[in-house]
Amino acid sequence: MITDEAELKQLIEELKKNEEFSVDLETTSTNPIDAHIVGIAITTAPHEGYYIPILNSLLDTPSLLSQDQVLEVLRPVLEDVSYQKVGQNIKYDLKVFKRHGADLKGISFDTMVASGLLHPASSSHGLNDLAFTHLNHKMIPIKDLIGTGSKRTTMDLVPLPQITEYACEDVDITLQLKNKFVSELATEGLTDIFRDIEIPLISVLADMELAGIQVDGNYLRQLSGEFQERLDQKMDQIYAEAGQEFNINSPKQLGQILFEELDLPKNLTRKTKTGYSTDIRVLQRLAPHHPLPELILEYRSFAKLKSTYTDALVGLINPDTRRIHTSFHQAGVRTGRLSSSDPNLQNIPVRTAEGREIRRAFVASDDDHTLIVADYSQIELRILAHLSGDDRLREAFEQDLDIHAQSASLIFGLPPEEIDDDMRRQAKTMNYGIVYGVGAFRLSNELQIDFGEAQQLIDNYFQTYAGVRDYFDRIVAKAQEQEYITTLLGRRCYVPEIQAADRNTQEFGKRVAINAPMQGTAAELIKLAMLEIHDYLTKNGKRTKLLLQVHDELVFETPKSEQEEVLIEIKRMMENACQIDVPIKVDIHAGANWLEAK
Questions:
Q1: How far is residue 556 CA from its own chain's centroid?
Q2: How many other CB atoms sit within 10 Å of the CB of residue 179?
């Protein structure tokens, strides 16, 4: 434990003798936007550790170095790229350091990100799990320090000997894991992706999360009121159709009314422990038989919009910044896609007009700024054309044809001018469904057609795009042989389900194997674009900021004075981030809010 300037300077000399060190912050909050630094842990070698306490609120705590003193001495090393920094979820530490005036540069390794790359099918990438799984080491549980539930306290109230042991263990185990993962990444051929994409992306994501996006709370409250009015109207209509009042949110009561009172076909549902299933698929099947199921679906849709979005998002607006600060995660999705939480801004509804209205609440900071939305057009289908080599699919994209109308023309054997909206809709569903390995049962539900007709559509599709069929056969065979597939850049997506004894699990594994190369390659493509765009904006002193990534879409905020130039540059960089055999197309627009810019 380091408590005076002389010891701190000795630590600096120790750091300067080494090319890398592991670093970890202890703070008052898991939310980096309002966390205060409690202490800094550092180590240069396994089984060692230094802890610099900064904040401790216990009355018997001896005099400590101030935060300003510590950061002034550490800053030159923290900000020097020649010293490589290692961490576990180091993005968190980077954000807290930045908020306190120190920029953590030279990040070379993150054990959480490495684990996500090496073990993408796992959902356990926390330090405790990694230590136990890979080092057979059981770490000190955080609850031993700060408790749980109503008795939970904060790290500044933990006695110094306890927090020192805990913090030093964190950096020690992180460095041990790093040494193990380095060789595993090399063995699996993943070093380049890790070094060139995932590690530099950490700083990009940190800047995005710190920037946040401004949200109009008043508009969300207004929208919530409108949704409540619609809910009240739907409730009255539901009671009228049912002929009685009941608890709409009770599946048991709803099932009783649908299948006993109204005597709707029981072969369209299944029995559960509490009665009849009334999930979305059951209600969709029942909709042609009576108005009530459709009303229930509409009611549930508005209830979801209100509770999950308009009501919840208001409470997540930071009172100091007036912005929502989400967190992006590089580990946790086997294809390498980013995920988002606290809140999840990657699942803001887009399918209904009412759902899309929620995007209107995400606004530019003021009248001098706009939001820019840049969206890859049909990127997974374009990647499919590249990977499969199918001549017809490639030709459609090379000639910039309407891919869905073109597919409809080929599938139905009609000239393009005879393709109506319904045929195009079916072809569009087919195109995107095929990417996810859709079967006839699922397709029949989505298109509201019978099973035989759906199977005929799938057969016609694969006759039309024979190269796609052959590619899928090769991918499934490869996955069955090695239990993983690879993306264009070599990321491994493991598919253990494909060897399962259970047929349903095996079929799920096949669908994952089919989709993963496309989804994973699309994820790599947009990550490359994010890195290049962030570098361009930083090096050219632009005030434009990247705020959000929603899978195939990027959201920026830009001063109006920069808008014209950055629109051109963003589109150029996204379309040229990675070369494939068909043109990559990006749709890009600006507006006062997310909906207008979309």
A1: 17
A2: 12
Q: Position of tokens 């109506």?
A: 420
**Token pair listed for 19:** 């090319």
% of the chain surpassing 70 pLDDT: 100
Strand 20-27 versus strand 84-87 pairing type: parallel
What average pLDDT does range 263-287 have in this prediction? 92
- Is residue 204 classed exposed, middle or buried when 0-12, 13-18 and 19+ CB atoms within 10 A define those classes? buried
Collapsing DSSP states into helix, strand and coil, what is residue 370?
strand
CATH code for the domain in which residue 503 is found: 1.10.150.20
> What are the pLDDT digits (tens) for 187-212?
999 999 999 999 999 999 999 999 99
**Percent of residues, the chain, with pLDDT higher than 90:** 88
- Structural domain of residue 135, as residue ranges? 5-212
Residue type, 28: T
CATH code, domain carrying 222:
1.20.1060.10
Alpha-carbon dihedral sign for residues 160, 166, 172, 175? negative
> Which token pair is 207?
């800047």
Position 89, amino acid: N
Mean pLDDT of all residues in 459-472: 93
Angle between helices 466-482 and 451-464 (to 10 degrees): 100
* E strand or H helix that includes residue 478: helix 466-482
User: Against a cut of 0.85, is the pTM above it?
Assistant: yes
H helices of 188-290, in order, are: 191-193, 199-211, 217-242, 251-256, 280-286
Of 212, 238, 259, which residue is a domain's last?
212
Domain count, the chain: 4
**Look-up of token digits 């193990």:** 180
Tokens of 35: 């966390």
